[in-house]
């Protein structure tokens, strides 16, 4: 895959910006966070330290309109696809090391058969 193809697929799991639209994208286990969201997190944490208030959180569903929630759904779905793709890559790597479907299934809390059915086409 050309270098730019994978970069176009990676997005921040929080704001959903493409990796090509931010300066840095930090990878975690199946998720990514951009430098802009890290900056926002730092501002929230600094504010929390100064105000000593309760834990910061996203707007509650109760405070959002139906349209706001509907607008957010595709972002959540895109993050799920990104996490699923990452999981498939990890499983494929394990299968490349000849790790059994049994061990993979146990690690994922499913049967050997379920693991094989979910990931067989990827190996």
Account of the 3D structure:
The chain has 123 residues and is mainly alpha-helical. The chain folds into two domains: 57 residues, no CATH class; 64 residues, no CATH class. 58% of the residues lie in helices and 5% in strands. It is built from five helices and two strands; from the N terminus they run αββαααα. The protein has a two-stranded antiparallel ribbon. The longest helix has 31 residues. Keywords: Chaperone, Metal-binding, Zinc.
Q: Could you state the order of secondary-structure elements as H and E?
A: HEEHHHH
Rounded mean pLDDT is 84
Strand neighbour order, sheet with most strands: 1-2
What is the terminal separation in angstroms?
17 Å
Radius of gyration: 18 Å
Assembly state of the chains shown: single chain
Strand content: under 5%
How would you sum up the global shape?
A: elongated
Q: How many DSSP E strands?
A: 2
Structural class: mainly alpha
Unreliable spans are none
**Helicity level:** 55-70%
Main pleated-sheet profile: 2 strands, antiparallel
Domain tally: 2
* Helical stretch tally: 5
Keywords: Chaperone, Metal-binding, Zinc
Organism: Nonomuraea zeae
GO molecular function, one term: unfolded protein binding
Family: Belongs to the ClpX chaperone family.
Give a nutshell description of this structure.
The protein is mainly alpha-helical. The protein has helices spanning 3-9, 35-51, 66-96, 101-108, 112-119; strands at 25-27, 32-34. It comes from Nonomuraea zeae.
């Amino acid at each position: 895959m050309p270098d730019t193809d994978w970069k176009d697929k990676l997005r921040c799991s929080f704001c959903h910006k493409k990796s090509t639209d931010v300066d840095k994208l930090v990878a975690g286990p199946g998720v990514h966070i951009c430098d802009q969201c890290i900056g926002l997190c730092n501002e929230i944490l600094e504010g929390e330290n100064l105000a000593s208030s309760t834990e910061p959180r996203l707007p509650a569903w109760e405070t959002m309109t139906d349209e706001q929630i509907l607008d957010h759904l595709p972002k959540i779905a895109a993050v799920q696809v990104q996490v699923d793709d990452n999981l498939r890559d990890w499983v494929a790597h394990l299968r490349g090391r000849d790790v059994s479907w049994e061990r993979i299934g146990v690690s994922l809390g499913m049967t050997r058969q379920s693991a094989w059915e979910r990931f067989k086409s990827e190996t």
